[in-house]
What we know:
The chain has 301 residues and is of the alpha/beta class. The chain has helices at 47-57, 72-84, 144-147, 152-164, 176-182, 184-190, 201-208, 213-221, 261-274, 279-294, and strands spanning 12-15, 19-26, 38-45, 62-65, 68-69, 87-89, 92-93, 99-105, 111-116, 138-142, 168-172, 196-200, 226-230, 236-239, 246-248.
Amino acid sequence: MKELDDSPNPEFVVIGELLTDVVARTAQQLRYGSDTRATISTHGGGGGANTAAWLATGGATVGFVARVGDDALGRAATLELLEAGVELHVPIDPVAATGTCVVIVGPDGERTMLPDAGANANLVPSDLPDHFFRPGAHLHLSGYSLLTASSRLAGLAALDLARIRRMTISVDPASSGPLLDIGPDRFLDWIGGVGLLLANEAEACALTGATDPLEAGQVLADQFPDVIVKLGSQGAAWFKAKAEPVFSPALALSVVDTTGAGDAFAAGLLATWHSGANVATTLAAANRTAALAVSRVGARP
């Protein structure tokens, strides 16, 4: 499926996963081998799709690339993004179903995810629309595209094309567990030359071997011009080589569901940074968007 609106040159290009999230919220810790009552709902999901939706809702022009299956979930997922104002290039996979993620949200709002990438895993370089890649635009790549072997060439091709077209680039490492499985050094080699790295505490530590996320941020700042480490309830920090980090506190709001908080954070940060704002203003905007995300169920605006 290729759905294009009247904006041939989006200012942001997001490449990642488009999923349906099945969110199970529990009022108590899981009882393995028995029953744990839950409230279950379905929502749009996928790291890249979530960031694209938050960017578009904030008024940015956004192009998004992923794959879906030829099924009802895929049709619903693409329609939701179109209604949010996202320009889509989402081919229908002839074999795989639309991806799904089971999200278990505990009493504290923290989520644990069981993802099935589905059709997203079959993204290939030829799926990348050439007109999305132009000087002055920004590429945001979800690390899932690189962490999944079958879509890795597409992720690497997107990075290469963005470099050739002199776009600014950001990468979200996506998830600490798969990072450790694939090997942090390999991942860092793939994303060499990226301008912005957005990692959470666990991802920053996984990439460096450090146990302190602030130490990890400093180490990563020797490899990337700008490194942002998301610190959960402590806010976020921005690192540059040979400079003191800039901290921004999280907003004190009730946490309902942390699903997609990092994706929303990325959208708030990118939109503000791309407009030319300074680091402090950019971090504050990112934390505001993340606060909106955790105050509701699901990962979308």
